[in-house]
Fold each of these.
Amino acid sequence: MDKYCVFGNPIGHSKSPDIHAAYALQTGQQLSYEKRLAPLDGFPAAVRAFVAEGGKGANVTVPFKLEAHKLCGALTMRAQAAGAVNTLLFTDDGTIGDNTDGAGLVNDIVGNAGVPITGKRVLLLGAGGAARGAVLPLLEHHPSQLTIANRTVATAEALVAQFAALSGGAALSACGYEAPRGQYDIVINATSASLQSDLPPVPAEVFGPGTLALDMMYGKEPTVFMQFAADHGAIVRDGLGMLVEQAAEAFMAWRGVRPQTTELLAQLRSKL
């Protein structure tokens, strides 16, 4: 039976084994999938040990996505663009790195939330690894405007410079959190502020009726960001759908078959 796992530290909270077990059952794929706690200073050794045991692939979560990027002999285009890897494929020729986070985000927005990105004004909050992985998949859907807002404007400007050639005609810009003006169609919180029950200091006017406000974090209760957005008229969504969709992308990369996500997302939502 082909072996897969997810590496992280901490890792006990991960829903990935349940998600991939459901996908395997649904698609008739024979595989096992487990959580692996990698030491903070021992990620490469943990990966080598798993490969030596016959591992075929792995997911990578916090805090190892940048290290995973460095480990790979080859990278997909979206992993190159993201500068981080969350999916590893172990082949006879070496390790291939992929990043399915951004595709998972976009699939959740368009497929599950039913909100088109094409021609829309999109505000992306944050310029770290999570935001970086989202930029190319967002641009591939041809928004009219993509604004990247970050506390350190220079970091956002570096992202804009990196993706300028791939903007596809979208108005791509960088600014501080307080700078965006007018209502956006989609506002994505790619910061970790929600973990500290905090929110980026964006103007309330970016939200309004019809705005989709998505926080990449998820939990039983709405995040502070989701509550603030809802208070100003937005439709809010957490990151659970993104989690399920990025896992489907990884499963597709490993097994060559794409699982259906709707039913599993509803099941996981009911258990929060």
Note: Residues 240-255 form the longest helix (16 residues).
Amino acid sequence: MGKIAFIFPGQGSQTVGMGKGAAETNEKAKKIFDQADLRLGYSLSSIIFEGPQEKLTLTANAQPALLTTSIALLQSMSEAGITPDYTAGHSLGEYTALVASGAIDFEDAVYAVHKRGVYMEEAVPDGKGTMAAVLGLDRDILQTVCESVTEEGDAVQLANINCPGQIVISGTVAGVQKAGEKAKEQGAKRVLPLQVSGPFHSSLMKPAAEKFSNILNEISIRDASVPVVVNVTAAPETTKEAFQEKLIEQLYSPVLWEDTVQKLIDLGVDKFVEIGPGKVLSGLVRKVDRNVRTMSVQDPESCQQAIQLLRGE
């Protein structure tokens, strides 16, 4: 029997109205949205369900919104008795994976990621840092490009290694621009600037990581009942000590998503269930290996389809 991994999307997948169907049809899902509002002290659910998109997209709202929606959608899977062999999440999605694996309570996680979003926004003054997607260039070549630009005085580094031929770089505006130009000279097909509020997963996030470590000390982190393949090392972890350490490192380290997917496949996973809005991760998984099964759970209908497929009905 093949194994199942639940995977959870990160920032950028948010859309107004996400999770509304789940809240309207599942009492446990509705309770998740209510718990988020209560823990944060403002109506996150009305921003999720009604928008506007600009408000939802603010990092301090988008992060808890995505976590809340994914955990709300997870309720129906749990009620149906579908449990994963492993979990993983892309950047912010790692927190959702930790909740799904029993390492962090939902209320603690939604509070933590809201603070994470606030600190990430504060870490670098607006307009000083940015990110760009580099398409069609080898990882090692791009790594060398980033190192040379950084040595010249403009910080830039690999941020998201998503799948073969798709890597996001992050750093100062000048660093990202220079690295993008050099990447094209080295044969990159395209360099696409990303609409983000800061240079996430770069060394410029270290001030945020220092502040955020205090938040992680406030909340309770336990050993996980289901292994989580973490972003920083693409290795399965179950201990609270590992999670505490890796969540801090994650803020300024690359998200090794391609490696994470490959590790899960090596561990015997042949079914990837993306739980949350969008199908970005399912697409990335297929680019790593076309032979695995992917399904996406975005609403009650797709959830039922996934449950039937996983039960072999």
Note: DSSP finds 14 helices and ten strands in the chain.
Amino acid sequence: MPRILGEVLTRRLPYPLMFENKAGGVGVPGTEAVVRATPDGHMLGIGAMSTLAVNPTLLPQLPYDPDRDLTPVAGVFAGAQAVVVHPSVAARTLPDLVTWLRANPGTRYASAGPATTSHLSAELLARRLGLALEHVAYRGSGPAMADLVAGVLPLMVDSAASALPQARAGRVRLLAVTTAQRLPGWPETPTVAETVSPGFEVVGWGGLVAPAATPARLVEAINAAIQVGLRDPVLVDRFAEFGAVPTPGTAGDFAAFVRAETARWGELVRVTRIRLDG
């Protein structure tokens, strides 16, 4: 989604945007590069739920403090998670699945990895419903979804961007989404909140951050350009293909959202004693 935003903004800015991937380390190397960058507005980072809200609790030796060392610039997107099962599972609805899981305690479920949105979404739902599940962590959504399609595991909560194409192809059965409202492109698919857990809402999200000392005037100028991009109809339509929506707002709005998400997911990581090794 940030790349889609970049494509839209490039048409409006007098200079090009370049993306540099710093993979691995649960996002720490990429985030640290932003922390150490010159605060002149020329380097931004893509911050997500994992890097900004989960890692401070998950990693006690984190070499930076996101709240102290980064400046939130703008939210970019919020994307649905989807509850999907292998077609062999005897459940056509989410209430059916809950009944089946209660009759089969210890059922294994796949996730994209420890402390990912995929994992935390499933853990939160299991705790709310009192389900006893066994977590199987994969190295990314792709391998996890491949094993779900193959029937190696029966269940997964995954990003809509990953799950919806498989559901369209009939390789998995889509039972519910985790957003507060149904997805526009999938109006027949209910939400978790309306079926089994009122008030349940989880979104995978991302936004842009800058080094802490970036001047406020630069943050405001960058945010203003992003707001224009987030209103672009092309961007809105392309986000929808991935089960996501743009999240316009001020830098202060994004900062408040990150603080709330840090408190929410930090508490879940603590009480469930989630670790990176599983």
Note: The first strand starts at residue 45 and ends at 48.
